[in-house]
Amino acid sequence: MKKYFGTDGIRRIANSELTPELVYRVAKAGAYVLAKHSDHIPTILIGRDTRISGTLIESAMTAGFLSYGANVKLLGVIPTPGVAYITKKMNADASVVISASHNTFEFNGIKYFCAEGTKIPDEIEEEIEEVMDSGKIYELSAINEKIGVSEIKTEYIDDYLEFFKNNFAKDIAKYNRDDFVVGIDTANGATYEIAKRVFSELGIKYKIINDKPNGININHNCGSTHLEEIKKKVVDEGLSLGIAYDGDGDRCLAVDENGNTIDGDVILAIASQYMKEKGSLKKDTVVATVMSNLGLNKYAQNSNLELKQTKVGDRYVLEEMKKNGYNLGGEQSGHVIFLDYNPTGDGILTSLMLIKILLEKNVSASEMAKIVSIYPQVLINAKVSSDKKYDFDKDEIIKQEIEKVQKEFAGNGRVLIRASGTEPLVRVMIEGENKEYITEKAKAIADLIENRLS
Prior knowledge:
By secondary structure, this protein is of the alpha/beta class. 39% of the residues lie in helices and 20% in strands.
């Protein structure tokens, strides 16, 4: 089991748990491991989101890379998928995103990407950890002319803008309407500036909120984890669609014209139907995680589509897609991967795909969302001790209670329990036809887990 890396890189409270010293070691060890797997000293890109600790972590990261002799290009504030895209386009050896995604501002994190623009494999993370905790790290120092050099390359974000223009300008121009107006919530995060540029360049009318980051308001009651404000904006101003990104811009959730949520499962259904009609959905298959709603399963069955499910984490969705040649996958959270375009979840890309489909079909968002019926789903977090969060399936009393509830559904619901990859939590998810009933059962199981594993 990894000590530092979770399901989405390293994520901790900045300057408390994620200290500059730890970051320096992560960078130095990372540069060493990356160089070991190539025949030259690596060039590494660094991007970050808008949280106040970003420049602190960036400085420590840069120092660690340079001290080993790696060269660094600083991209500034840029969405995670922008870093992934530029890494591949510029033939960089690797990149790092400094972000805690949808978490509140006091957290920050480190995510490594390889040259292909995908997250580094688990085994590379394990190798980095091994070097970090060995005495070897203190020997890895470049001197004299071998010390690395950093450059500020914030202009690289223009290439990310061109990517959207090249892929969407023609279709948007063909089907765009004067009465089609989109509400955008950038969560005071990494998309706050680039989203405006993209929508303006494509000629899509928009009204934007939460685009004034101050270092501490990222994800604060806004963005994809808090849809209340964008829902109100859409309904009050009669907008055609609402879009909400998360702090680092790799997720997108939507809101229809009536203020109803269009989550990642619904987006996958809409996209898969469109792609199948166009003959572009490879192997007529959608990849999702075990957290996907039962409604997506039923939609896939009724549409003669194959639904492949992986464990939770976009990296595992991508692994399944690449391994078996699929090109559409994602998570309920709005992390959707269109592999023909970018090898990671991309909030802006997802929103443009949705907009393109709505405009081309000339239907409302609410009408389009009807293709899938979503079962009520309740998710409750049980707070537990960090060292016990993986023990829920070893406790016989907890196991018996879970099995008992599962049997009661008789195929019309399910119970899914999993440990958080980033926090001391066990997540209890139950879905079924009666929301009041499943809420009661989820709370009971969560309370039992807290009592036995705290």
